[in-house]
Amino acid sequence: MNTAAQDFMGRALELAAEAGENGEVPVGAVVVMDDRIIGEGRNAQIGSLDPTAHAEINALRSAALAMNNYRLPGARLYVTLEPCSMCCGALVHARISELLFAAREPRAGAVVSARQLLDEGAFNHRVAWSEDSEHRDASATLLRDFFRSRR
To answer: What is the pTM of this model?
Structure first.
């Protein structure tokens, strides 16, 4: 992974930590176009009373406002946790070109874990995806520590 990509996932991890500090599940995401961040988001479902306020959705909303367009062709999304089915659908609708995620989500992950939605042929847009093994442990540790503190 190149240095810029490491910086982008690093920023997503910072956002995840902020979410955890706010009592939200620690997930962070950034949308990148032309090697610059155009949108950021972190989990905020509890604080915003919004079940759709996942990190990915918040980052997509931020990027769409910044670009003045609900479609983001050529953009990449870096997220600390494998997206759920809702977020995978949003990536397709936003025309995200590439997804990079750090940790797998064994219960609700819809990219490789519980489902493989982005590989289905029925969608009118394909999102390329890959796993970021370099940041997997950092993301998993944030999540593990968060849930351990809740028990």
So the answer is: 0.95
